[in-house]
C-alpha cells in the first residue's frame, strides 16, 4: 500500500456534493411549496437571544463560513433571535442551509430558510 494518496482520492468531490445538495433541494421544494425561491441571503431564526449581538454575529460568521464566503450578517436589537446571512452565491447559501438546518447553536436548534428578499447591498451590486 502506498504511503500517500493522490489528491482527491477518498473524498467526495465538490461537484458530487453539489449534485447531492441540488437533489435534496428539489425534494424539499416538492414537500414545502410555500418556501421562498433560492437566494444567496438566508433568514436565520431561533437564535439564542441571551447572547450579545457582537458575539452572535462573530459566531454566525464562523458557523456559515465553512460553506462559503460570508459577505454580510445583519442583526439588530429589535430582531432578537434572528439574523440575515448573505453568502457569495446561491449554491453556497443552499449548501449552508441544508447542512446547518437544525444544528445546535448556543444551545438552540437553528432554523434556516431563504430570505423572501435580497439584502440591499446585493441589489446594489447587481445594478
Automatic annotation (TrEMBL):
Signal peptide: none annotated. InterPro entries: Nucleotide-bd_a/b_plait_sf, RBD_domain_sf, RRM_dom. GO terms for molecular function: RNA binding. It holds the Pfam family RRM_1. Residues 40-117 form the RRM domain. Residues 1-29 have a biased composition (Basic and acidic residues). The keyword rRNA-binding does not apply. PROSITE patterns: RRM. SUPFAM superfamilies: RNA-binding domain, RBD. Residues 1-42 are annotated as: Disordered. SMART domains: RRM. CDD domains: RRM1_U1A_like (cd12246). Keywords: RNA-binding. The keyword Metal-binding does not apply. This is LAFE_0F05468g1_1. It comes from Lachancea fermentati.
